[in-house]
Amino acid sequence: MTTQTTPAPVGASPSEKPPLRLFLTILQLACLGVFGAGAIGILSALVGAGVALLFVFGIGAVFLVGLVYALYGLGWFEIARVDGLYRLGLPPLAPRPRQRPGFGGWLRSLGRQSIDGRMWRAVANFTIACIFGTLVLRLFWGMLWSAIYTISPLFGGGSTAGPFGTVVTAGWAPLVGILGVLAAAAGIIGLALLHRVLTRAIVVPNREAELTEQVRTTSAQREGAVRAADLERTRIERDLHDGVQPRLVSVGMTLGLAQQKIESDPDVAKQLISEAHTSTKAAITELRQLARGIHASVLDDRGLDAALSAIASRSHVPVQLDVRMTGRCSREAEAAVYFCIAESLTNAAKHSRASECRVIVRMREGGVLWARVEDNGIGGAQVQPGGGLDGISNRVAAAGGTFRLDSPQGGPTSLEVSVPCAS
Known about the structure:
Single alpha-helices involved in coiled-coils or other helix-helix interfaces; Heat Shock Protein 90; two-stranded antiparallel sheet
């Protein structure tokens, strides 16, 4: 009998010891009460400097860019903090990928990052936690004074001075102290529990948002798959029409001439048959290359490293191959990365005038297959509808991955793809 386990959804936490979790929450709030004000002060300073110096030779823009990166770092820290504290199963905050090359693509990605709702929710949760942390420290201070009230009669005296100018007589001091300790402890515990409730409400995405994101991602993958299949069909038709088909027609015509000459001029017929034989072998080679472009059997048999080594050995441009993988990914993920690298090397040989290419493949944390292709060519590569780079972007999108191209005029050109291994 087999047992299947369903992974816990985002926001679900495993069994834990409530007292320990509560103590860690209070400790973290106290730390945020001490250091959080400094982080918020730095963000406020960046906002002020950016706005004040924005029209002074654009210096303020540098501060505003720094503000976006600081907000991202703070959001990343906050999500990691609450996920580690409450075991919510939250994915880490990821930067918005650059979808276009050059400075314009960087500005677009920076703009999308500045309006990232998940980042802002994390920053808001951090701010609330800092406020709660300040209150926790105040309550700790009140608890300390209450404890002093409780034992003050042991030191004699008719009355005991407290915070905010209060004075309590020695007879009432123990009772007031005990009530103060209980009230402060209740306040601290209440703030810790409220922090957990608000964190789940602010940071953890609701079910509707998750479903909306899943629908958007699925739609993008479906569109990418359809577009990639259409481009692949067009490429196969073009290669057959422009390469193999004319060669086979030529073979047929040559054999026809040889048939006519076989009795009247056997020597010419033999020469024509030899030409047809050579053309037939060339057509077979082209068909093999075309079949290899559709499906690489070595990829299934020996893995991505061996398949990329075969590509590098056939490349017209020298290739430095650096593949480090700890295991195999899914067939779809390996195929997507393989064909992206193959197409990139083909483009480099045809258009970039490069004298050298470098291919780097890594297995990254979180089960992501990452690859980078660099060449020292003239650059200026752009994604054109129906072109090779368009096919790469659609194939990566169909596999649920990301695609990034950086190719300024004058070079060099670099292309990065990241595909989840379970795609």
